[in-house]
Amino acid sequence: MTIADIKSNTETKMDQSIAAFKNNLTKIRTGRANPALLDSVHVDYYGSAVPISQVANVSLLDSRTISVQPWEKGMGAKIEKAIRESDLGLNPASMGDLIRVPLPAMSEERRKEMTKLVRNEGESAKIAVRNLRRDANESVKKLVKDKLASEDDQKRAEADIQKTTDRHIAGIDQLVASKEQEIMAV
Q1: Cβ(29)–Cβ(103) under 8 Å?
Q2: Residue 161 above 80 pLDDT?
Q3: Domain 35-102: which topology?
Q4: Is the Cβ–Cβ distance between 183 and 115 less than 8 Å?
Q5: Burial of 62 (0-12, 13-18, 19+ CB in 10 A)
Q6: CATH number of 3-27+107-184
Q7: How far apart are CA 37 and CA 52, in angstroms?
Q8: What is the annotated localization of this protein (predicted)?
Q9: Where in the chain is the domain with CATH 3.30.1360.40?
């Protein structure tokens, strides 16, 4: 493995960490409805737990209401029960074949709790990026120890890895700030 391989692998893994962080952010509730909010809710479908999106159409009716349209007649009650029992604090209402999931307005206290949750997620993502930096630097040091690269190469590689890390951490900070702004908007 060369220094270039180490740098490209590290960058790829850091990009994946940020993608996972973005995915986690979509699950954090803001004041507005988002179909991705129900992605973590699983429903019993012929003996196996599957995401709601695999047994129904999940879409938005308006900015505060998610609609769930089951593909099979008998799934409505199961989907409604799964949403109610999830830890999202939602209360679905069935209207014939359609299940409406209104999102209650968030209190100021709840908004502050959500921003703390976003910051914690951001910190976890930063830790993941820093761990990748540490692993990459150790790999470069191993190459120098095995005499496959010079110490000058090591210095340059560590500087490049640090720049990549700084760029990714700045991206995480930006995502955290925009999500906090979204949550605090009434």
Answers
A1: yes
A2: yes
A3: Gyrase A; domain 2 (3.30.1360)
A4: yes
A5: exposed
A6: 1.10.132.20
A7: 11
A8: Cytoplasm
A9: 35-102
